[in-house]
Amino acid sequence: MTEAKAHQVSTNSFNENHAIYDQVRPNFIPEAVDCLTNNLGLHEGSKVMELASGTGKFTKAIKDNGYDLVTVEPSVGMIESFKKNFPDIPCVQGDSYKLPFDDNTFDAIIIAQAFHWFADDASMKELARVLKSGGKLGMIWNQEDLSDLPEDHWQVQVSKYILSFDGGVPQYRHMKWPLAIKGQSYVNPDYQDAYFKWQKKNNVEDIWPYWESRSYITALPKEKKAEVKAKVEELLKIHVKSKDIDQNNQITSNRYAHVVWTTKP
């Protein structure tokens, strides 16, 4: 049987784009962070692992809470940026299929913006192994919220175009990740969740770098990526209206944060 390992598109892409990822990906809003940490029952001294910590976009939100925190990340590029951002927080190279920790080690595991990459039975078994009995597993994602926008809105047009390239890789929006929780016996399959709508302001010129940081866009051949960039810039030129631009010359995108949590029996 082939040993399961981290998805190569994610690892290779994030090795390459970790610096831009750190610059352009949004932070996590306090309301969503508080929801997650409260429902995980975290307090000062809680032993917490953040898995697939990336450059530390979520770590930033919990680093001062007094947790006994260790992070794990498969991408050496991401680890490079993480250690620049948080030189005093342990970050070890590893993945969800072979965690370098003893059984029953952690009170909680947090996965931000990443569970869809390794949402399978092998990962769930390994996560449960290192959780204490009664330990908590929590996930959080930032996502585009197109639900209240007209079809000709710039965010709808750009998002739908870029998302047309994501069919070959695991993504949150494909909604296959819930099956990994519901179809196993290692943690309670009846997870709980909450949604938080929010908005982010950006300069127009920051929209392409944000989308370029997606793994499946980073992985495109140079010529194709240039074509995609040109198309995004064209869509922005067509669909960003004067009413969309505020006094600081910024445009607003609609987002939501999705928080998920469950428990090891």
From TrEMBL:
* Entry superkingdom: Eukaryota
- Name all Methyltransferase type domain ranges: 50-137
GO-annotated molecular function: S-adenosylmethionine-dependent methyltransferase activity
What are the alphabetically sorted keywords of the record? Answer: Methyltransferase, Transferase
InterPro entries assigned:
Diverse_substrate_MTase, Methyltransf_11, SAM-dependent_MTases_sf
Task: Report the record's Gene Ontology biological process terms.
Answer: methylation
Q: Which Pfam families match?
A: Methyltransf_11
Q: Cite the PANTHER family for this sequence.
A: METHYLTRANSF_11 DOMAIN-CONTAINING PROTEIN, METHYLTRANSFERASE TYPE 11 DOMAIN-CONTAINING PROTEIN
The UniProt entry's sequence similarity note says: Belongs to the methyltransferase superfamily.
What is this protein identified as?
Methyltransferase type 11 domain-containing protein
